[in-house]
Amino acid sequence: MKSLNFQLSNIQSRSILVVFLLLVAFAPMIMPVYQITLMNYIGLYALVVLGLVLLTGVGGMTSFGQAAFVGLGSYTSAYLTATQQLPSWLEWASGSPWLALLAGLILTGLVALLLGAMTLRLSGHYLPLGTIAWGISIYYLFGTLSSLGGHSGISGLPAIELFGLTLDKGEKIFYLIWVVLLAAIWLVQNLLNSREGRAIRALKGGQLMAESMGVNTFRSKLVAFVISALLAAISGWLYAHNQRFVNPSPFGLTMGIDYLFMALIGGISSVWGALLGAGVLTMMKQWLQDWLPVLFGSDGQYDHIVFGLLIVFMMQRSPGGLWPILMKWAPVAFKPKRDLLAGTDASPELARRTLPNSGDLILEARNVTRKFGGLVANNEMSLQVHAGEILALIGPNGAGKSTMFNQLSAVDTPTSGEVLFQGKSLSGSNSREVAKMGMSRTFQHVKLLPTMTVLENVAIGAHLRGENGVVRSSLHMERLQEGSLLKEAARQLERVGLGDYLNEEAGSLALGQQRILEIARALCADPCLLLLDEPAAGLRYLEKQALAELLTRLRGEGMAILLVEHDMDFVMGLVDRIVVMEFGQKIAEGLPEEIQTNPAVLEAYLGGAD
Amino acid sequence: MLSKKLLPVLLVGATLGFNAAQADIKIGVVTSATGPIALVGIPQKNTVALLPDSAGGEKIRYISLDDSSDPTAAVKAFKKLIDEEKVDAIIGPSGSAAAMGVIQFAAESGTPMLAPVGTAAVVLPMTEQKKWVFKTTQNDDLIAAALIEQMQKEGVKTLGLIGTADPYGENWENVMSGLASKAGIKIVATESFQRQDTSMTGQSLKVLMTNPDAVLIAAPGSSSVMPQTTLKDQGYKGQIYQTHGAALDPFLRLGGKATEGTILAASMMLVLDEVPDSAAKETATHYVDTYTRIYGNPPATFGGNVYDAGLLLKNAIPAALEKGKPGTPEFRAGLRDALEKTKEMPGTQGVYNMTPEDHSGFDERGRVMITVKDGDWKLL
Amino acid sequence: MNFQIAVLLGQDGVTNGAIYALLALSIILVFTVTRILLIPLGEFVTFGALTMASFQAGEPTALMWVLLGLTLLDSALDAWAMRERGFDTRKLQIIGLKLGYAAGLVILMHSLTLDQIPMFAQALLTMLLLVPIGPVMYRIFFQPIASAQPLVLLIVSIAVHVAMVGVGLLLFGPEGARTQPFTDTALSLGPVMLKSQTLWVILVSIILIVSLFLAFERTLYGKALRATAVNRMGARLMGISPDFAGKATFALAAFIGVSSGILIAPITTLYFDSGFIISLKGFVGAIIGGLVSYPVAAIGAVAVGMVEAFSMFWASAYKEIIVFTLIIPFLLWRSLTSHHVEDDE
């Protein structure tokens, strides 16, 4: 998986898109009727799979329950348009598929919110198993409720009418299905290339980081989940009025599994993979049915066996799906390229926080103690960081620096004592809230999203400086502000010396550069306090010099900086004051030159060697 | 992607080629040879090989597709047969839900459809669309009426009902609740179960608590066995009735001693050597013998439903040929009209008499009362 | 509801629960060692039952050809691997042994009058035929992607399940099967009749559960096997290769699955596609045990059986809904209590 292909912006790839759209537009005139039927199903499936790409491929949440959402969309419409005697409170919605669509979307949205609120907190394997659980429950509910026609289903649904046209034939509803699908692809692509989208993309492998950049990851999960449910419900609505008959079986777990198969075969990380996967799987089932009897004779049913084995083979050979392979083979000229900064000239610069006056107390730890069971990781630790000052926290391995760092950044809560940030106690706050208050951090083990570009990674840091939500992002109504965010990210990258790498994949940078990237990302949040966890580790001499210069400049601007570091040379020449820890306690505090001669520190570092 | 675009072209070519090469009569067959109701679908699919290969001097070609017991796939298969293969008639699908789903597409394209499914809803109430549907099984109410009659004869006053949680069980529940109340039989317990359930203790206890005079089990195929064995294990002494869904040899094999004394109404295929000679018996005997010769075991009655569909078509084709050539709408319309005029045609299941109102066309000759005695089917 | 009914339902719940518990334990076992959620476990249950039934009908099942075919493929893969790693006489012997085993089984199958031999021998034969499919399955389908993402493993697991259901339909047909009970007596316990087969199920299940527990919680080797998931290097130091650990657990899981199938075949009708829903209920138990704890999972699985039995009585139409909705609170509880700080999914 080389890159996520979210945006086609250069001329060649755009011309491919145009050719593809023309093909779709004229398909009903040139293709045989049955192929149009299949195209309709491909479109319907692709709509659901698109949601899975967003949810599973991008957001990292595996769901087997999408078919149940398709069912909700289908059954709502079937119930409202084809039931003879609706309860009186629902009569307003009877008969019209369009009102039924609205009702279906509202219902699905509510159910998704409820299920999401319950199950999206699940971690690891619990989430997919959870989706299996409610997926099955909803499926059985369809068959059990007699008002929904039980297992026999509901027949006699009306065809959809649009601008006076009755879409009662496959080749007519074809246009509706594909317009909806392409619009959905466009919207999802827009979303992914926005502030909200970056937050969703950070869910897979970067939740801790995203939270500390102010992203409400649970909300982002819920957003992805609800969107994917709504896409499924729309697909279900179209399905119901195309089929004009519904019964429970297309909404069971088998179909939920098939949707996931489609997503994985197509390529679960890209929106076009959704279309490809739906197409390949649908056609593959057709071919198997056509060709297997020729190969094996018709007295056995081999298609399920062959189908299952093909999936296994596919997963063994290319777990990323077909789309990445296709992209690898495509001539360079056809590969989508992008320059996210194009067209951002009109965007204004972001407003900046007024930094406190130099010398103001920014961060204070008062007698912080943290115990893990019987182990005391931090004991009565106190320290102060002022604006326009660099404080280093040093100590040998296992001294409790990382634990202290977690207490200071509100990732963890002290057992006793408290941490004050700009005079306010952090007890009860989470990392998201302290990010809002102006604290920004880097990580000891670099946390960035390797398949996203350097620019996008840094732009996550500016999450709290934009406010455009999902709807505006999907409709590209936030381009002006989006431009501001990206320009800010680019400015910070220039500032730290990574200006030449804006459109590279972050994963392709050297480790030292990745650390610098993290600083740029932290700066992008416009903080007044910077917490740096071993920023110089893995850096070369010249890079360290550049980093020292940058930090000195920031200090000059009034930033408060706390760094945890091992590299003594780096620390001694740079910082204003040093706090030394050993065995969870502060053993010394003072100016660098005092620390260098402090006997307790020497004892700690040199292990009493005299 | 490339081949995806190429395929339609190839298929068009292939279809055109076929059409030019032969002007046979094409009949599509859609069965559920895999998936949950494969039990019904497999004998049906196997029967395709036994269907008449010519009628009215024209050769008949059959195109058999599997819908994996999935109504969506059944719709796809129908559309494929109609749009791509341009078939003259379709036999299938195996499932009731699937059949309900495909009716409109058969009707829209004017293709006669012969559904080997149980639920009467595919032909009743008759509508403009259902004019194109013919049903080759006894309507559930025909069988139900026979059972009710038998129950009245034995003085049954209260009845417990156990049905599968699927269209089959559901339909029986509806049919029975109507008929039973008319006959003065009270349904005291209605329970449902899933085919794959590994235990039925709960349902069966619930039925036993009401202590009914008799219990009717409505379940297709081998799933009819477990309710019966569970009831017997728990010491139920009343009469157990089964529907024609149980009319399969696996019922005897799996149920063993517990099936002794069961009463069911079904087609005569199970008790061929006991029923008096008739044209229908001859047809059924021929079918069973041929099937057994090819596949090594006798067919389930579901297969007979497809066989009858073939016979009905064969019977109707000569008249239809006068209206138009195979492959034309005129021919299909003619076929439909001719099917509707079927009179006194013996099939494996009984004798067919179609009318514009009745597209199932069975009378009492469509079922016999059967009981299990000494581990074998016996005429009651 | 009176006492008698409660006892009957309880007995039913315990019988099914015992089977779910067995499956839950093997699911946890496989998961902790290989990170694979073994969805096809249910197929081992159904294959076990259906094979047994076809033996009792006097027919050798075509499954032996499947085993032979898979063994050939497995040997080919091993031979191919040898091409890269260099010639190894011992490996060659093992390949020969495996092929000989499969071929020998085919011959044995054809020379025996299957419905005449005692039931114990039939069960043994079923085991001999089906248990080797476990490790072979691991070798062919999972070993090449042992370190893949969890989602990929899950998808492959499901795909194998889909293929196996297809094989099941092909080999055993759509009709379900039942077998003869081990012993045909009934025990009366007050007003309640207990079938001896249910006692068999409970007894054998308990024996298997306890021995599994002892093997994996109390022996060094078992602990080491479980450690492979966490620490592949450490396991290597113990002399266990991850490949071997995978095969061993799959063999054990297959054994448990097949045993469960043979145990319940006399009291229920199993179909070629019954496996999925049965193993899902095992999964529910495993989830309650947090995919790690054997005793909690066993208790959870029995609870699932009980809930099922009683909801079957109270609201038969809603049974599945009740069972599957019930795990959501457990999932929440498990997910919230298990500390999962890092996000490397």
Defining key terms:
heterotrimer, A: 610 residues, alpha/beta, ABC transporter involved in vitamin B12 uptake, BtuC, Rossmann fold, 3 domains, six-stranded mixed sheet, 23 helices, 14 strands, disordered N terminus, B: 380 residues, 2 domains, 12 helices, 18% strand
Describe the structure in your own words.
The complex is a heterotrimer of chains A (610), B (380) and C (345). Chain A has 610 residues and is α/β, with parallel strands linked by helices. Chain A contains 23 helices and 14 strands. Chain A folds into 3 domains: 11-334, ABC transporter involved in vitamin B12 uptake, BtuC; 355-438 and 528-610, Rossmann fold, CATH 3.40.50; 450-526, no CATH class. Chain A starts with 10 loop residues before the first helix and ends with a helix. Chain B folds into 2 domains: 2-138 and 283-366, Rossmann fold (3-Layer(aba) Sandwich), CATH 3.40.50.2300; 140-266, Rossmann fold, CATH 3.40.50.2300. Chain B starts with a helix and ends with a strand. Chain C has helices at 3-34, 41-56, 63-85, 89-111, 119-130, 133-142, 150-172, 196-217, 220-230, 232-237, 242-264, 275-288, 294-314, 319-337, and strands at 186-189, 192-195. Mean pLDDT of chain C is 85; it is low at 340-345. Chain C starts with a helix and ends in an 8-residue tail after the last helix. The chains are: A alpha/beta (610), B alpha/beta (380), C mainly alpha (345).
Mean pLDDT of chain B: 86
Helix content of chain A: 40-55%
Compute the separation of the termini of chain B in Å: 63 Å
Average pLDDT rating of chain A: 86
Which sequence of strands runs across the widest sheet of chain B?
8-7-9-10-11-14-15
CATH class of the largest domain in chain A: Mainly Alpha
What is the H level of CATH, i.e. the homologous superfamily of the largest domain in chain B? Response regulator
CATH architecture label of the largest domain in chain A = Orthogonal Bundle
Major sheet strand order of chain A = 10-11-12-7-13-14
Strand content of chain B: 15-25%
Topology:
The complex is a heterotrimer of chains A (about 600), B (about 375) and C (about 350).
Chain A: H1 11-30, H2 33-58, H3 66-82, H4 97-119, H5 126-144, E1 154-155, E2 160-162, E3 165-167, H6 170-192, H7 195-201, H8 207-212, H9 217-243, E4 245-246, H10 253-266, H11 271-296, H12 303-317, H13 322-329, E5 361-372, E6 375-386, E7 390-394, H14 401-408, E8 416-421, E9 424-425, H15 431-437, E10 439-441, H16 454-460, H17 470-474, H18 479-496, H19 511-524, E11 529-533, H20 541-557, E12 560-564, H21 568-574, E13 577-582, E14 585-590, H22 592-597, H23 599-606
Parallel strand pairs in A: 7-12, 7-13, 10-11, 11-12
Antiparallel strand pairs in A: 1-4, 2-3, 5-6, 5-8, 8-9, 13-14
Chain B: H1 2-21, E1 25-31, H2 38-47, E2 54-55, E3 58-66, H3 71-84, E4 89-91, H4 96-109, E5 113-115, E6 133-135, H5 140-153, E7 158-164, H6 167-182, E8 186-193, H7 201-209, E9 214-218, H8 225-233, E10 239-242, H9 249-255, E11 263-266, H10 279-295, H11 301-321, H12 329-340, E12 345-346, E13 351-352, E14 368-373, E15 376-379
Parallel strand pairs in B: 1-3, 1-4, 4-5, 5-6, 7-8, 7-9, 9-10, 10-11
Antiparallel strand pairs in B: 2-3, 11-14, 12-13, 14-15
Helix pairs in contact in B: 2-11, 3-4, 5-6, 8-9, 11-12
Chain C: H1 3-34, H2 41-56, H3 63-85, H4 89-111, H5 119-130, H6 133-142, H7 150-172, E1 186-189, E2 192-195, H8 196-217, H9 220-230, H10 232-237, H11 242-264, H12 275-288, H13 294-314, H14 319-337
Antiparallel strand pairs in C: 1-2
